[in-house]
Design brief:
about 230 residues, Glutaredoxin, Glutathione S-transferase Yfyf (Class Pi), Chain A, domain 2, binds glutathione, Glutathione S-transferase, Metaxin_GST, transferase activity, Glutathione-S-Trfase_C_sf
């Protein structure tokens, strides 16, 4: 049995974490049975990040590692039809979303001064006093440090929006006229694309990134298509 440990649903999405939504979408695409356990404190996971799964008593972390393990253990064929060139593009798109675009969404949720007073009660409102005042301060300082270290936190909001626009343009160009990044049917890269794009473009938690949604109608239509297929 697979148990998926992830943050609770929020923002009108199955999950407000792009990586948790990526992995749960993958499980649905693969047709693997699973149960969900909500966790609000990622420090309880061995690598202090979510998602993680318990697979017959073994704890596995990192959406990419988990997908690779499930693919080999259950002989999944989600990517069987992908050519070497398409597989290369899938890795490149995954890196763009996981390692670059993700941080832009983090910035506009956590460090934008308009977003923070709305985010704070959503993520930390369940904590008892005085934790609900202390933990958000520590967590926000950690996010600020992470973004400084990653490098994107050194840019202005306008520069970050320009990066987001070019990331989304790359996604729209790769999608082209196809229904899914995998072609006529979703492949595993669609789990990643949906996790990130749905969080940035279709969340009820509004950030400056929402303005970009109208510039990329094929991507918002894509999110709706994935939602209808996997999250009816
Ligand atoms: N490479 C990891 C990234 C997971 C990740 O960054 N998870 C975030 C939530 S979206 C997290 O748990 N952050 C908690 C923290 O950094 O303290 C994966 O693919 O699963």
């Amino acid at each position: 049995m697979i148990t998926l440990y992830q943050f609770p649903a929020a923002f009108g999405l199955p999950n407000p974490s792009a990586f948790c939504l990526k992995l749960e979408t993958f499980l649905r695409l693969a047709g693997l049975p699973y149960q969900v356990k909500d966790l609000t404190d990622p420090r309880k996971a061995p690598k202090a990040k979510l998602p993680m799964i318990d697979l017959d008593g073994e704890r596995l972390c990192d959406s990419a590692h988990i997908q690779a393990r499930l693919t080999s253990q259950f002989k999944l064929e989600l990517d069987a039809q992908r050519s070497p060139q398409q597989r290369g593009q899938d890795v490149a798109l995954t890196r763009l979303l996981d390692e670059h675009f993700y941080w832009l969404v983090v910035y506009f949720r956590w460090l934008d001064d308009d977003a923070w007073p709305r985010l704070c009660p959503q993520f930390f409102g369940h904590l008892p006093a005085p934790l609900k005042w202390l933990v958000p301060k520590v967590a926000r300082a950690q996010v600020r440090r992470d973004l400084q270290g990653q490098g994107l936190g050194r840019h202005s909001p306008a520069e970050l929006l320009a990066f987001a626009r070019s990331d989304l343009q790359a996604c729209a160009d790769l999608l082209g006229e196809q229904a899914f990044f995998g072609g006529q049917a979703p492949s595993s890269v669609d789990a990643c694309a949906y996790g990130h794009l749905a969080n940035a473009l279709t969340s009820s938690f509004k950030t400056p990134l929402d303005a970009l949604g109208s510039e990329f109608p094929t991507l918002t239509a894509y999110c709706q298509r994935m939602q209808a297929r996997l999250w009816p």
